[in-house]
């Protein structure tokens, strides 16, 4: 596997999370693993895949800049193709296991990508979207008009994330609640958890809680 990919936890576990990450995410992976083990034991594996261009590789369609000067691209489809055609097959080849369950997890824009992947393929049984960027222009219409193909979804948001002067990002609170309603109406087992603090508080703990929720709801191996 390429140097963009790290396999953490037990590679023989049937419970395998895939998470798109950047350098900042990689800094707290040890804390995330410790938190998840404390909450849910050690029967899991986490495959992290480093993103080359955060704003381009994780977004499903182009959008103008929301903060700073860099806009967003349409690289999500290519990223998903990379996961499905290279990352997962290579991982399976090196770590074969029967009846493995794949989950996709992500924080921030990677959380949005995880949600989008849940709509775009049936490989992932569940989605963990921690503080996802559901403020993304056009996301509400997409979420409402497309079928969610994963069976379960964990959503979370910080209770201060909507408190911003940025009019686009200020919609994240109402949008995350709308996202939960849409998924529940489609029959998806979906939970929304509110956390204390802004977008940058405790990403390791928030993501680990979502992963633990997924594991708690799965049948034993």
CATH architecture designation? 3-Layer(aba) Sandwich
What ranges have pLDDT less than 50 throughout 5 or more consecutive residues? none
Computed over alpha carbons, the radius of gyration is 16 Å
**What structural class results from the helix and strand content?**
alpha/beta
Shape: globular
Strand fraction:
15-25%
Average pLDDT metric: 95
Oligomer: single chain
How many structural domains in the coordinates?
Answer: 1
Return the CATH class: Alpha Beta
Order of adjacent strands in the largest pleated sheet: 1-3-2-4-5-6-7
Give the key terms.
single chain, 221 residues, alpha/beta, Rossmann fold, seven-stranded mixed sheet, 8 helices, 7 strands, 21% strand, globular
Explain this structure:
By secondary structure, the chain is of the alpha/beta class. The radius of gyration is 16 Å and the shape is globular. β4, α5 and β5 (124-130) form a beta-alpha-beta unit. The chain has eight helices and seven strands, in the order ββααβααβαβαβαβα.
Secondary-structure blueprint of this entry?
Elements: E1 5-9, E2 15-21, H1 23-27, H2 29-40, E3 45-50, H3 54-57, H4 76-94, E4 101-107, H5 109-120, E5 124-130, H6 139-145, E6 152-158, H7 172-185, E7 189-195, H8 203-216
Parallel strand pairs: 2-3, 2-4, 4-5, 5-6, 6-7
Antiparallel strand pairs: 1-3
